[in-house]
Design goal:
2 domains, mainly alpha, 4 helices
Length: about 100
């Protein structure tokens, strides 16, 4: 809130000045309402599920790498690991964005 909207006069905080600069550049103000406990819990759960899947994926990946001696197979395994990890992270990000209402 700015001094004009609150009826306050005097020195503006750095936060108020930053908000005014954002508005002057056409950037929307950040939302001030907080997320509900259910939404926060859902976001936390999505993060934990993704962390668990990534940890499992990493353990399996390292085990498979130890058995490989062919550089081509090693590179293929690494590429598949990176793709699966990215898929898990993107799914997590989509779930969180949905919970945030975007």
């Amino acid at each position: 809130m700015t001094a004009e909207t609150t009826g306050k006069k005097g020195i503006k905080s750095a936060y108020e000045r930053a908000l005014e600069r954002m508005e002057s550049e056409g950037i929307e103000r950040p939302r001030e309402e907080a997320f509900s406990h259910e939404v926060l819990a859902g976001m936390d759960e999505a993060r934990k599920r993704a962390e668990a899947k990534i940890a499992e994926l990493e353990i399996l990946h390292k085990g498979r790498l130890r058995k490989l001696h062919d550089p081509v197979a090693f590179a293929t395994e690494e590429k598949e690991y990176q793709a699966e990890r990215k898929r898990i992270e993107e799914k997590r990000d989509r779930e969180i964005a949905t919970l945030r209402g975007r």
